[in-house]
Amino acid sequence: MGCGTCSSGGSKVSGCNNNGGCATGGCNKMNVFDWLSNMDVPVIDKFDVVEVRFKGGHKDFFRNTENLELTTGDAIVVDVPNGHHLGHVSLQGELVRLQMQKKKVKNNEDIKKIYRIAHQKDQEKYEEVKKREMPTLYRARQIIDDLKLEMKLSDVEYQADNSKATFFYSAEDRVDFRELIKLLAGEFRIRVEMRQISLRQEAGRLGGIGSCGRELCCSTWLFDFKSVSTSAARYQNLSLNPSKLSGQCGRLKCCLNYELDTYIDALEDIPKVEKPLLTEQGVAKLQKTDIFRKIMWFGYDDENTWFPIEAKRVKEIIKLNKAGKKPSSLQEDNVPVKEEVTINSDLERMDKKYSTNTKKKKRRKGKKRFPKNRNQDRKNKPS
User: Fold this and answer.
1) Which residues contact 220 (CB under 8 A, 6 or more apart)?
2) pLDDT in tens, 7-49
3) How many C-beta atoms lie closer than 10 Å to residue 269's C-beta?
4) 91 to each of 35, 118, 325, 326, how far by Cα in Å?
């Protein structure tokens, strides 16, 4: 599949002109699929606002007042306060209108305009400006250490006109960086803007590989960070291990919310076992729950065997216990046990296997010895 959108003839690929596969979204961060690009939308005029992507996945909306012919992935020069900046077109058309409604951005005069499609000189100048970012980041961290400020500087972004630099940092408490701004502006000869971001936004800007083996969601498609609580892990029967539940940002993983609604719906049919179940065979305690199969595993105190019980049967036993009655067993009457799982059952199978093997070997040895003696006895017997 080619990158970008095809021309009217369908033979030439526009956009970044990379004809490789873009299934992983490796061309840029926060890649968007325009599912209306090949459809004739029944509108009189095309929506003139375009979504533009900048470094680190940051996106903003700009108005195409010059009616430029733009395609997804084009580098353009846009108007920003006190200068201009270079970005790439990420979305256009009616989907931009929906995105503005979703992000509650009003279509008024506050939306800046697009100057032009970036020339070769604009891109070369921007590449030269980007080379200043890493040295500036290292030097700024040294200045922060000298001033002993409790803040973590994660990224620096220069404006395309080389007149302004934005420093992204994270901090737990409020930081007085007035002296820091003076030192940075005097050393780098630029206007300085300090922007505080959360730890999740910091992980999204820096990127990385998650424990699932894929690129971080916050750096590829996730832009709206919702709060994640430990109750999401409890609903899904996950162990409350901070090292496994936390992501690279140090906070709880955003993916804990992805299947939470499904688990909550499935838990409606599973009863809450607040105390052990009472039966004539003994007291049975809950060991684990299979939420989607709606099977609950119980075990007696004196046994190592776990019995799988359906959620309906558990509700019946709870009602009997509340009425002061005890069933004969966990299973229903006159119904054989479907499945039993014993702790260390694999070791018991291995013991049985080796014991049978040793018995077979002994039998073989006995068969080899006795036939020879029997033949000798037959020879010595008188005819």
Assistant:
1) 25, 29, 30, 31
2) 444 444 444 544 444 443 445 566 777 766 666 655 556 788 9
3) 11
4) 10, 17, 66, 66
Give me the DSSP letters along 330-346: SSPTT------EETTHH
Q: What is the pLDDT of residues 97-106, one digit of tens each?
A: 988 998 889 9
Whole-prediction pTM: 0.66
Q: Count CB-CB contacts under 10 A for residue 118.
A: 20
> Please, which residues have CB within 8 angstroms of residue 202's CB and are 6 or more apart in sequence?
152, 154, 155, 168, 170, 249
Enter the tokens of residue 196.
């505080």
Parallel, antiparallel, or unpaired for β 295-300 and 282-290? antiparallel
Please give the order of strands across the beta sheet that includes 83-92.
59-63, 49-53, 83-92, 75-80, 114-117
- Terminal alpha carbon distance of the chain: 95
Task: Please choose, from the candidates 10, 9, 28, 8, the residue with its C-alpha nearest in 3D space to the C-alpha of residue 18.
Answer: 28
**Beta bridge partners of residue 295, listed in sequence order:** 290, 310
Residues 6+ apart with CB under 8 A from 6: 12, 13, 14
Which residues are paired to 76 by β-bridges? 87, 117
List CB contacts of 178: < 8 A, sequence separation 6 or more.
none
| CA–CA distance, 138 with 141 (Å, rounded to integer) | 5
Residue 274 · residue 291 · CB < 8 Å:
no
Name residue 3's amino acid. Answer: C
